[in-house]
Amino acid sequence: MNISRRNFLKVSSSSAVALALGCGKELGPGENLSPTPAWVDTRDPKYGRETTTLCAYCAGGCGNIVTTALVDGENKVVNIEGDPDHPINQGGLCSKAQSLYQVANNERRMKKVLYRAPGASDWTEISWEDALNGIADKIKATRDATFETVEGANTVNRTRGIAFIGGSGNENEEGYLYTKLARSLGVVYLETQARI
Ligand code: SF4
Q1: Average pLDDT over residues 78-86
Q2: If you measure from the C-alpha of residue 99 to the centroid of ligand 1, how many angstroms do you get, rounded to a whole number?
């Protein structure tokens, strides 16, 4: 059979349309070929207390639902999954976040403050109060020793002796408060882990 170039194009294009429409099958009532949204459906099963939080691993800021329940008399993380209501990940989580529960349920997780004095080789356990007071003392001493009020003819009121870093697990509001705190101290080296 001889097929002209014009007829070949006609046949090809009508075949392509037929393929796109489902090989010529007529659509029934209620059927359509629109893409199906693939985000995770809101789910019902609840087998513990659910809390929403953010993944702390990268700058994505994906939302998680963390389920905690009593296991052998101890409150433990028993499940972490993507939050379908979160605008960023809409229920999805990457493989890193799916291992997040291991951060909480981990025998090697530090639960107490350890301090190693200058020159010492051993770590000693101290209270949170002592730790926070010690940090505050060091910030004040460093700021007092390094504070600059002017540079040339310009007022700068800054310290370059302290750097401040936030984490990607911090929410907007926390980040706002941390930034306020750092700026009020005159810190100019201010960064977030999410941007590094
Ligand atoms: S789930 Fe993955 S992409 Fe989202 S914030 Fe965590 S590490 Fe980043």
Answers
A1: 91
A2: 11
